[in-house]
Amino acid sequence: MNTNNNLDNIDNIDNINENMGKLVVLSGPAGSGKGTVLKELFNLAEYKYSVSATTRTPRDGETEGVDYYFLQKEDFLRKVSSGDMLEYVEYSGNYYGTLRDPVERMLRKGYNVILEIEVIGALNIKEKFPGAVMIFLTPPNYSELSERLINRGTETDEIIARRLEIAKKEVVCVEKYDYLVINENNMQKRAAFNIHCIVETEKHKNIQPKSMSREIEIMSKTAEENKITLKSAEDFLNIYFS
Ligand code: 5GP
């Protein structure tokens, strides 16, 4: 059977099989706190994290197969040409990509799967799987983002400068996402709860309001507050760069 077709049909399967998991794409500039928020999210409910492949060198404390699969460039490109990647991108001088097989398996088992990926890869996923939930996470403004990235102390000044430049371009893509979650200082639990509400709401989207449980009804209201419209994206960008 052609794996490619299976995946391309995931969205259709999603509509007829309520046991299918949700594909959740989470993007946000470096320093937006994705890692910390995801830890909080995984305390709230069972989610599966898609471990990406990358050619960048591991940072202190990162573990093979947990944070990333760290590959040599040739091995990475071999996987791309054999169709083992759902998407991939060159970002800040390294390759990053989502491995097809584990994602497919986890979705079929009914798990909600989180892809923590940058904007270009995210938009490619949305094109292939229109049913994927697209969430953008960011600190409230650009100066807060720069401060966090500098204080994190994991990158050299040159890399920080490069990542801040990328961040500017990424944030402008916010309107292409379905939801915007602001990660306020020390409010990671709140951001995680918002993401959980969004996923649960999207999973129960086809249920008639009158047969919705009280819990889902409350979650839908929270999700609605994070929904992106052209107007809210415009307002957000004005504040972000002011
Ligand atoms: P970092 O080097 O800080 O771990 O990641 C750099 C950027 O690459 C982050 O924005 C992260 O979300 C993104 N990224 C990680 N894995 C993937 C992937 O598989 N595909 C894409 N497109 N981006 C990824």
Task: Present the secondary structure layout.
Blueprint: H1 3-8, H2 10-16, E1 23-27, H3 34-44, E2 48-49, E3 52-54, E4 68-70, H4 73-81, E5 85-91, E6 94-99, H5 100-108, E7 113-116, H6 119-128, E8 133-138, H7 142-152, H8 157-171, E9 179-182, H9 188-203, H10 214-226, H11 230-240
Parallel strand pairs: 1-7, 1-8, 2-7, 3-4, 8-9
Antiparallel strand pairs: 3-6, 5-6
Question: Short description, anyone?
Answer:
It is built from 11 helices and 9 strands.
Report on this model:
- There is one protein chain.
- The chain is an alpha/beta fold and 242 residues long.
- It has 2 domains: 159 residues, P-loop containing nucleotide triphosphate hydrolases (Rossmann fold); 60 residues, Guanylate Kinase phosphate binding domain, CATH 3.30.63.10.
- It contains 11 helices and 9 strands.
- The strands form 2 sheets. The chain has a 5-stranded parallel sheet with strand order 2-7-1-8-9, sandwiched between helices. A 4-stranded mixed sheet has the order 4-3-6-5.
- It is globular.
- The N terminus is likely disordered.
- Guanosine-5'-monophosphate binds next to β5 and β6.
